[in-house]
Amino acid sequence: MNSDLFQRVGLFPRKIQLEDLETLLKIERQATANGWTLQNFKDSLSFKHNRCWLISSSDDDQDIIGYLIAQQILDEFSILNICIRPIDQGKGWGKLLLQGSIEMASDKGCSVIYLEVRSSNKAARKLYRKQGFRETGKRKGYYPSVQGREDAHLLSLLLE
Asked: pLDDT tens digits, residue range 44-61?
């Protein structure tokens, strides 16, 4: 991930390590009621095609703000999980992390980026649209939610 993009605004990106997972799980639980489990995070680190990055507000990694977990298979890049801790949402860090993932996918020769987003996550859906993502479909009842199940919007971004 292009560290210049982040360091200009005082953020520090690096690859996720096993010892980061408890903090990431805490952020995940603060951000969503039915998010990833610790095993989901562990599995993501062990798969060789995954790209697992975090951003922190200090170069000593004491203040993790958010993370991105993506997967590259051939020329397709899929964003599996992108999250900013709730106290830092609305500051533009999610947009920056998304832009970093788009740059990463482009630099790796990908032609398309895919992602899924909850119907209820209107802020994320708006961000993705502003970055050029287009809805390509829906998965009915895909996500567990407090009220049962929630639809996923399938989005894609074609890269040049």
From this structure: 999 989 999 999 987 665
Nearest to 118 by CA among 96, 147, 75: 147
Confidence (pTM): 0.91
- Considering 67, 128, 143, 150, which one is annotated as catalytic? 128
Beta bridge partners of 135: 155
List all residues 6 or more positions away from 44 whose beta carbon is below 8 Å from its beta carbon: 50, 52, 69, 80, 81
What are the strands of the beta sheet with 134-145, ordered from one edge? 12-15, 50-56, 64-73, 76-84, 112-118, 148-158, 134-145
Contact 154, 138 (CB under 8 A): yes
64-73 and 50-56 beta bridge pairing: antiparallel
114 is known as an active-site residue:
no
Distance from chain centroid for Cα 158 = 18
Catalytic annotation present for 135: no
For tokens 């982040």, the residue is: 6
